[in-house]
């Protein structure tokens, strides 16, 4: 017998029901936990913080080796100029 998770949704109201193995079951818990922040205002970020630029970007760049670059180039077909041009072209209009 499957046990179901039933929780009320404090922000939007109503009930949500999901079996525990369903990905939505985690969402049910997050709804409850984050409800108190529903009306919270957050400042907008116009630029990356300096610690991100100074610490995280170089750390990430060290992880990008030639093997990974080759994988991206192959996977995304970056060497195919025609495919790249098709990707940025405006869609045809019917007229």
Features:
single chain, 8% strand, 95 residues, two-stranded antiparallel sheet, extended, 2 strands, 45% helix, mainly alpha
Give a short overview.
By secondary structure, the protein is mainly alpha-helical. Helix content is 45%, strand content 8%.
Would you give an account of this structure?
- The chain has two domains: 5-37, no CATH class; 50-88, no CATH class.
- The chain is mainly alpha-helical.
- It has four helices and two strands, in the order E-E-H-H-H-H.
- The chain starts with a strand and ends in a 7-residue tail after the last helix.
- The chain has helices spanning 24-34, 50-63, 66-75, 81-88; strands at residues 5-8, 15-18.
- 45% of the residues lie in helices and 8% in strands.
Cα separation of the termini: 58 Å
SSE pattern, N- to C-terminal: EEHHHH
Kindly state the mean pLDDT as a whole number?
A: 73
Radius of gyration: 23 Å
Share of residues in strands: 5-15%
How many helices?
4
Widest sheet, order of strands: 1-2
Helix/strand structural class: mainly alpha
Q: Return the domain count.
A: 2
Q: Which percent bin holds the helix content?
A: 40-55%
Topology:
Elements: E1 5-8, E2 15-18, H1 24-34, H2 50-63, H3 66-75, H4 81-88
Antiparallel strand pairs: 1-2
């Amino acid at each position: 017998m499957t046990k179901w998770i039933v929780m009320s949704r404090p922000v939007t109201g109503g009930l949500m029901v999901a079996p525990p193995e369903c990905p939505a079951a985690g969402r049910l818990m997050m709804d409850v936990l984050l409800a108190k922040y529903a009306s919270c205002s957050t400042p907008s970020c116009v630029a990356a913080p300096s610690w991100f630029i100074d610490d995280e970007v170089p750390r990430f760049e060290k992880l990008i080796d030639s093997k990974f670059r080759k994988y991206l180039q192959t996977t995304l077909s970056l060497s195919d100029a025609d495919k790249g041009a098709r990707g940025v072209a405006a869609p045809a209009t019917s007229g």
